[in-house]
TrEMBL record:
Succinyl-CoA synthetase functions in the citric acid cycle (TCA), coupling the hydrolysis of succinyl-CoA to the synthesis of either ATP or GTP and thus represents the only step of substrate-level phosphorylation in the TCA. The beta subunit provides nucleotide specificity of the enzyme and binds the substrate succinate, while the binding sites for coenzyme A and phosphate are found in the alpha subunit. ATP binds at residues 46, 53-55, 109, 112, 117. The lineage of its organism: Bacteria, Pseudomonadati, Pseudomonadota, Alphaproteobacteria, Hyphomicrobiales. This is Succinate--CoA ligase [ADP-forming] subunit beta. PANTHER family: SUCCINATE--COA LIGASE [GDP-FORMING] SUBUNIT BETA, MITOCHONDRIAL, SUCCINYL-COA SYNTHETASE BETA CHAIN. One of its GO terms (molecular function) is ATP binding. Substrate binds at residues 274, 331-333. One of its GO terms (cellular component) is cytosol. HAMAP family: Succ_CoA_beta. Belongs to the succinate/malate CoA ligase beta subunit family.
Amino acid sequence: MNIHEYQAKALLRRFGAPVPSGAAILSASDADAAIASVTGPVWVVKSQIHAGGRGKGKFVEAEAGELGGVRLARSAEEAKSFVQQMFGRTLVTKQTGPAGKQVNRLYVEEGSAIEKEFYLSALVDRTTGGVAFVASTEGGMDIEEVAASHPEKIHTIAIDPATGVMPHHGRTLAKALGLTGDLAKQAEKLSATLYEAFVATDMSMLEINPLIVTEDGQLRCLDAKVSFDSNALYRHPELAELRDLTEEDEKEIEASKYDLAYIALDGTIGCMVNGAGLAMATLDIIKLYGEEPANFLDVGGGASEEKVTAAFKIITADPQVKGILVNIFGGIMKCDVIANGVIAAVKAVGLQVPLVVRLEGTNVEEGKRIIAESGLDVLPADDLDDAAQKIVAAVRGRN
């Protein structure tokens, strides 16, 4: 689960991280009070959407001379005018896609006199099985660009979960960023603070870009992006309340109600698979044969007929889906349950696009019998390669 910058900064502030003061604007009527609560002489007005590149983003139908989604105001009146220009508008960045995202929340904070910018993040390192810090002197840039052009400027600091952050981790971070003296001590303290926040709230990713040194020699978290492990939210009901459903795909919201692992993609072939690895293989083979998947959907190993029906309905609700591939390997999941779920869903919503079903494993013969006797226009497949070729051919036959 992702949260907004202002929410992430409030959380980090709670743990003692150095964050500039600011106030959220959740409705246009909040603007005057929010701006008045922030000390000038410089105010920064920031669009709050779940996407990067806000500063270089452009608003739909922007007037000539308008700036991006992050603006620097040198008076309270200018800050108010920026709020009026930005609130409720659609912001397009390199991460939103051409459709953009509507700005329903803003954040205004005090300006910072920046001397240096760094990149710092904490994430789950699956190589070591613990948390790792990733640091770079190239702050303010996309870390992917830095990795491609200057990989030597990226430093990874692995943390042993048995010990947590130790003083030497902070010293290593300071050295990676070229910090000495009091700034090195601040880096050591910051590393411990961020690690505590990361572990205590079950984060999966914490990114501060940029982490800055101010002209008076203070480290500050100038931006903050936080993602939580959704599987751990039952332990943090106060964090679950931070979820902004307006930032999420409606199909993904519906999928979460049934505990389905669903991610919307840009292709035309809807996929329903059990198991993340098999789902990834299914997406790959669709691309191999020249088409694009419309989604990642893992119904899990023990899905019920109700869950399968819900999954099928979510796929068919996507207008860009031109064909559907059901690929099930029955272990804990039984093929007859999948078959009954597919039939129930088709009867409920209808079948307007080609459907290919590949079943293998537990109760496979019963599942195939159920599909065959259903009277539905379903293309059976013997294996994954056969299934992929059939659904790609069917989709292309419709175009």
